[in-house]
Amino acid sequence: xxxxxxxxxxxxxxxxxxxxVSKGDYLMVEDAKSRKSLLVQVIDIQFINFPGLIEExxxxxxxxxxxxxxxxxxxxxxxxxTLLKDVRLLVCKIRCxxxxxxxxLDISWLPSRIYSRVYRVNFSELFKLLRIGLKRPIKIxxxxxxxxxxxxxxxxxxxxxxxxxxxxxxxxxxxxLLMLGLVEYGAPCIVFDVNGEYTNLGFYKNGEKNKYYSRxxxxxxxxxxxxxxxxxxxxxxxxxxxxxLGLTELSLREFFRVWxxxxxxxxLTFRNILExxxxxxxxxxxxxxxxxxxxxLEHSRLFTDNDYELLKLEDVLIKISGGGVVILNLSRISAxxxxxxxxxxxxxxxxxxxxxVVRAIFLFAEEAHLYLRExxxxxxxxxxxxxxxxxxxxxxxxxxxxxxxxRQVDSVFLFNFKNxxxxxxxxxxxxxxxxxxxxxxCSLEPHYCLIIGQVTREVPLVVKVKELDVxxxxxxxxxFN
Amino acid sequence: MLKLxxxxxxxxxxxxxxxxxxxxxxxxxxxxxxxxxTSPTDGIQNHFIEDGILNIKNLPINIDDRLxxxxxxxxxxxxxxxDTSHRRIGVTRDGVVYAFRxxxxxxxxxxxxxxxxxxxxxxxxxxxxxxxxxxxxPVNNPLDFEHRFQNTVEKSLQWYIAQAVSNSIIIFDGCLxxxxxxxxxxxxxxxxxxxxxxxxxxxxxxIDDENVLLRLKKFQPPWMLRVDDLLPKNISSxxxxxxxxxxxxSESIGFRVDIDSRxxxxxxxxxxxxxxxxxxxxxxxxxxxxxxxxLSTFTKIEVLGIQRLMTKKFGVKVEKLQSTRKMLFGPFxxx
Lengths: 481, 335
Prior knowledge:
The complex is a heterodimer of chains A (481) and B (335).
Chain A lengths: L1 E6 L2 E6 L10 E6 L4 E12 L5 H13 L1 E6 L4 H9 L2 E12 L2 E3 L11 E6 L1 H8 L6 E6 L5 E5 H4 L4 E4 L6 H14 L3 E6 L22 E4 L9 H16 L4 H17 L4 H10 L4 H15 L14 H7 L4 E6 L5 H20 L6 E6 L7 H14 L1 E7 L7 H6 L2 E4 L5 H10 L4 H9 L5 E6 L7 E5 L16
Parallel strand pairs in A: 11-16, 11-17, 12-14, 12-15, 13-14, 15-16
Antiparallel strand pairs in A: 1-2, 2-6, 3-4, 3-8, 4-6, 6-7, 9-10, 9-19, 17-18, 18-19
Helix pairs in contact in A: 6-11, 7-8, 7-9, 8-9, 14-15
Chain B lengths: L5 H7 L4 H10 L5 E4 L17 E3 L7 H4 E3 L9 E13 L3 E13 L4 E14 L3 E3 L4 E3 L6 H20 L4 E5 L9 H9 L3 E6 L3 E4 L2 E2 H4 L7 E4 L6 H4 L4 E7 L7 E6 L4 H14 L2 E2 L2 E2 H10 L3 H15 L2 E4 L3 H6 L6
Helix pairs in contact in B: 4-5
């Protein structure tokens, strides 16, 4: 391989037949004289446009299809021509410099064409060089050359991650892998499970209990997860009434006036509040608005008036404080109920984190646009992050995630995308040039994932996500197979 | 059906070009080879320019009597086209490196076949001599080798084909002149019943600064017009054939055709008739010759391949030749 050209952050390298390089591979351009190296990633492979190539190809076509004969080629020139015809141009992006063995972002220098040596870097060497996955390694999968990629749980800590890709490419599989990896290091996780595909994480594929069984708690709102109004508290309830059920501020004020009055004398139950409302002097329209919302809450199945049915979130979180997963199975409830549950959980989590009942928690949000209200997006990436909620967004609709979220994202796990609009959406805001994003993401096979960000030291890596021996249940259901 | 074997050709070849080539190139081992810029806009022109404009005397008034109307004869006759080309690969301190290649194309009943010979790489210095069939001529300037050595290669192919086939029509590229062929080759061909002709792409025949073809527009092709008796003496003395102006198809621009001078009128008409009847004449040009040209021509990628081969095989260091004109005149250097 020979260094051909450098323009901005793009390096072009001539690659001769026999030198096997493919998209996503890393090459080192080592300038022996200056003792500096450039780490570049191949983002495209093109044919080189030699002068006279068209004449050669046309002649070849003529002689191959309509004219037959013998060549006396004493110098075996044909082999050289074949070689030249197959010379490829590797379009590469510079990822970093290595100066005196230390990684540097200074890419302002130009390597020598004459003294530079270009060679492929094994992924295992690359991981060592970049010091990826050293402290708390989570095995993610394998690179093309068979090297195992381990991301560092520390790099997911305190961060915001996105897992995106088309349906059936393996997003949920990766999220489960990361989640169980975090659990191994004692991290508490909570999942908004829209499709009920995480519920069997405590079992092997053959149905037997696995080592995570005792650390996995599946909460199903209305069944084993119910809360009382008193436990929900004023703040959480006001958020639900205001943001989910659309109660106006005036009505909300009147509701909490009644709430306070009831609390002085009786238990805070739907019956007592409704009774108090009926006898109150509140404007009838306001009264009606509040009553209708209360009926909705009562029928949401999340709320109960019976204290014995109450399941306190902190009680569950304590159980997973040494590592575990709380799975909120949202698959059997309506869209509105889903929003109520999520609002409750997030509100309650913030409360608990503020009180240091929980130190921090990893939140896995599947298809968050289905249940997360608009105002929460900013909240999650700014305020909640500081409180200790570290989120993973998992979606097949990149446009459903706000641009602000992308801008603050620390790590992106990108599966195959063909749709140009989706790619534009991601590449516009992700921490990677759009050329790389479009070139690599389009050609990713199912279960292959492009990882960009903090977990890979900002160096894009393609891995085949490893198998997981748990009952995943995330596969798309088919009719014929 | 005509069958040509390459091994026969090698056995009959007068000078072992391969040995010569290796001996010659071994002299450049480890040397610097300055090469030319092969920009994509450069044309590929490496064939021997053998002819130019021929001015003839006035056409006779009875042009209808002179014009030979041709008819295609479909009885199978092998048509053999032959062409060679050369390319300058680079310049060393002592000389010039050239590559030569020849191609013989023939049409059997169903398809076209070919033998391609080369490339041979030669490093010529002032001390070298050009090998002819019967003589060797010293050359003062290595650049003079260019055409003279191509001639040698071409004549070798002509010699081979003249004796290897019989009762065929052999077409050379260019014209039948002292420089491009030997009378012995034509004698040999005749003995074997072959008819030799040459077709020139570049010759233009003019009368009073007007292309003769314009005056012959009204005649429906295929036709031939004999013009050698109208040529000036200084030209006709170097020509070994009878010179015709010919238009084989309506889309043809018309070519100069030289035919072996010893052939009688009937043989000439028959030969051309067989050529028209047996070969494909796209734009009036024989396909055999067109393919021979295509196969022998060096493309730029082949030149690069040869340069790379010299680097790998002979340890030559290839350097780009600095153009003094470009250095001095920049973008105006081309003018």
